[in-house]
Amino acid sequence: MASVVTRLKKKQIEQLIENGKRLDGRDPTDYREIKLEQGIIERAEGSARVLLGKTEIVVGTKIEMGEPFSDTPNEGVLTVNAELVPLASPKFEAGPPNEDSVELARIVDRGIRESKAIDTAKLCIEPGKKVFVVFVDIYVLNHDGNLIDASALAAVAALMNTKMSNYEVEDGEVKVKSGYVPLPLKDHPITVTCAKFGDKIVVDPSFEEELVMDARLTMAIDDDGDICAIQKGGAGYFTPEQVFEVAKIAKDKAKERRKKLDW
Amino acid sequence: MPTFFEPKQIVTPGDLLAEGEYIAGENTYVEDKKVYAARLGLVEYDNKRVSVVALKSFYVPRAGDIVIGTVVEVGFNSWTVDINAPYKAFLRPSDVLSRPFKPQKDELSQVLNAGDLIVAKIVSYDRSHDPQLTVAEPGLGKITRGQIVKVTPTKVPRIIGRKGSMISMIKEQTGCQIILGLNGIVLITGKTLEDEQLALTAINRIENESHTSGLTDRITQMLKEEKSKQEEQKE
Amino acid sequence: MNEKPEKLIDKKGLRLDGRKPDELRPVKLEVGVIPNADGSAYVEQGKNKILVGVYGPREVHPKHLALQDRTVLKCRYHMAPFSVQERKSPAPSRREIELSKVIRESLEPAIFMEYYPRTMIDVFIEVLQADGGTRCASITAAALALADAGIPMRDLVVACATGKADDTIVLDLMDEEDKLGTADVPVAMMPNLNAISLLQMDGKLTHEEFEKAVNLAVEGCKKIYAVQKEALKAKYVGIKEEEAEE
Fold it and tell me: Which residues of C touch A231 (CB under 8 A)?
């Protein structure tokens, strides 16, 4: 059920990239236009909407109380889920999460978790018994390529927008007080995805470029500029030199975006 | 122009066999004027041609090949045959019956039923169609007696031997009729079960030791010894 | 061991199992272990015990999933319920779904997909016992199983993981280093083609540390590659020696 790109278009895309240009006129290291809005879903504790070119993602966060994991009894829990809803693309079908939505969720999760973006220690209500569980739900509304970067951006923006109820623990019971507190965040990871075409690397692949590329490489960069998560995807390969080239691009692009967003 | 192995050395996928103006033979591939092995096997350098005789592979159909297969399904107007290949083969009534096929009158299962063994010839095969078989030629048709053994298809030439020397010797020593399907299925028909077993043992041994030398002599030796053992037991 | 060790690397620079930072765990590879499968392999590395079976190329089921110009590669990474400390439910977890995908994508570049249109190749990975680095050990064994099935390949695929334990970049993480270390970088590659077909990371590494980690993983892969090749040839080399003695 894969989309078919015509041989002619494939050749066109490859030739353009070979000459340092892309189908939509971008340079190899240019992102498409990014629009970011926060707080668009009032019912959610936090939310954000990202437009990356024509790719559209909405993320909503919900906070509930639950049990901690046995190996981290004093820390809150993060759960990330992604839905590739059928209206977003002729490629998507209704049904249980497939490998693409599972992978997307886990990559975004990794960036947030490994950068320690959420201060989970502050989400402990009763050590070993009760903690706050943060649900991050990624909704893909239109698929025009690079779901990863768009989703990760929306997810972090939604977390930054997330407010939790003020509470107090009295006699082992949680009492909700008035007012809200922001979700305690320690980091704001930014992911950068590159696509490989032969020996050329481009940033932020569009949907059609994704159909033609050899493989993709995503890196999540934390506030310190360090790498906190990496995922290679697609049935191709990268040489070690290309891996380091992507690392450099990711570092630069993340810095650029961080400045633009003021994160 | 360098080569990197001795002839008949065992190579694995990805081994660089030669660099320069070489032709990529069987079970190899070329990238940037470098010839690499694509399968586990013995490398052969023949002038400009570098190839690998695979130790393990599977049969890919080829038009004209004689194969032995099992009928697995009797359809409405064709039979589906398992020829030990990635693709199932098909047999149409016109390639079986010597007269036209009348759907109301003829019952396909009466002619060939699921589970029947046949010796057939591949009439056609290409990348977009499954192989088509025929049994409407002399020497082809349903098998009624004998034993079947599966061998790695690349070993079939070894079982045949140079100018048929190996297979002729086995037939002579065991008194069996042997049909070698190029798809790695061998049919052995002998006068007694012991004769068939003997031929089977010889063929299995050839398969396991196909990459060694002096095989023909050793098999001949083994068959002679077994036969004299059998004679002794009879007395 | 229920207590968390204080340090992963001791004063002498040795790890919890006595290894040096750039030392691999002993690895044992065996080919052709499942008679029914077209190809198979078994790997033991550290306490990892993993079995891989390959079926194919064979006809695609269901038929509508067949591709007209190439084969379909399917991969299933699955852990036995008894493979880990706390019993794992046999139902596929999200982790297993993701690993099945990345493992498939690490093997696919090695296979000539266009050779056998309208067929499928199934790779079944069963982790019988897990000890850190299962995805890497699985890939190493799966490549052998594919070669054992006689499927033409560009190269074998071999994998190993590096990481950061305390402040040192280490090769071939064991379970404790995997859980308590500060970075985990699994790498799979086709050594002869200098091609990395699996690369993941979680943790925190500076760019310099990352470069070190990748380079160390590549070195480790090349060492395991030599063992892989010997395992593939093992059945035939033995007989050749036997015959020489006659």
Answer: 102, 199-200
